[in-house]
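ok new one. same drill as before - structure tokens go in, u give me an amino acid for every spot. 299 of them this time. try not to just spam alanines like last time pls lmao
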């Protein structure tokens, strides 16, 4: 029996392998969350300077910043992080959350993102088992995590993630196999309708809210993310995602106003709630909808 056949027949082993691999993926996602907004900001500044006929602004530091270069470094002292100190979760614990060079505190967010990526990915592997459906669910999970982190930090859902997520969902629908009974990816028809309906619905809400209040209640990145979730899961899951995200967002928003005395005018990113609701629908959407319909006597 080869290794792939073993993983196909042994779900716990598959989930364990995905857990270990996803620790490394989570380490890379930390880089994406931290660096991608900086890269985009530099690109936007250069484009604005070019349009104004001005020289491009000089970036901080001498090295070009990409997701691959320079190697990981301490934000405080800029010292490169040695490989032995870059082992996901373990190194942070061994160093007690401090830089090995200068002793500056390393935020707990880094190991938490790594651990969350591993746990969520292992849950996906356990739920779907070895196969194409699990591969699709892992791809969606690994793209939702940096979108959540970046939106929390910068209230930004970058096109370089949301648009590939949408197009990958549409392309994956071409491999939809109705005979297998798999819920992921959606059929081509459901994916196309889901992508269009997700984007256009939030776009409509945006314009109605702006017409009534004179304010922008959300960003275009939210429309694209909702459309991308519709492309992967089909239009049938959009009401569930909208209900879950709006409910959690309302609870968190009210909680912030009560606990932090935060005013209504303080913007709250909607992307993390969409991402969380989308992941729940990815995992248990058909069961949740089916259970609701049964309780309501509609099935």
């Amino acid at each position: 029996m080869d290794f792939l056949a073993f993983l196909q027949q042994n779900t716990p082993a598959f989930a364990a392998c995905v857990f270990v691999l996803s620790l490394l993926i989570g380490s890379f996602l930390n880089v994406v969350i931290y660096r991608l907004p900086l890269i985009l900001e530099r690109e936007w500044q250069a484009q604005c300077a070019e349009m104004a006929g001005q020289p491009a602004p000089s970036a901080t530091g001498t090295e070009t910043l990409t997701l691959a270069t320079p190697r990981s470094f301490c934000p405080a002292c800029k010292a490169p992080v040695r490989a032995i100190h870059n082992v996901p979760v373990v190194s942070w614990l061994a160093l007690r959350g401090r830089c090995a060079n200068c002793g500056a505190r390393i935020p707990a967010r880094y190991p938490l993102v790594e651990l969350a990526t591993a746990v969520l990915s292992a849950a996906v592997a356990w739920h779907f088992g070895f196969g194409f459906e699990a591969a699709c669910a892992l791809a969606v999970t690994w793209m939702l995590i940096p979108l959540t982190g970046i939106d929390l930090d910068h209230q930004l859902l970058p096109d370089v993630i949301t648009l590939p997520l949408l197009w990958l969902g549409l392309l994956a629908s071409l491999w939809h196999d109705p005979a297998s009974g798999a819920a992921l990816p959606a059929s081509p028809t459901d994916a196309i309708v889901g992508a269009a309906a997700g984007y256009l619905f939030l776009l409509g809400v945006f314009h109605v809210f702006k017409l009534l209040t004179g304010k922008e209640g959300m960003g275009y990145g939210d429309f694209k993310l909702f459309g991308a979730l519709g492309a992967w899961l089909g239009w049938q899951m959009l009401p569930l995602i909208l209900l879950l995200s709006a409910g959690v967002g309302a609870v968190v928003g009210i909680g912030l106003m009560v606990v932090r005395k935060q005013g209504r005018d303080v913007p709250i990113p909607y992307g993390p709630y969409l991402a969380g609701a989308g992941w729940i629908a990815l995992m248990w959407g058909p069961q949740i909808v089916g259970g609701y319909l049964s309780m309501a006597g509609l099935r």
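The longest helix spans residues 11-51. and btw The radius of gyration is 21 Å.
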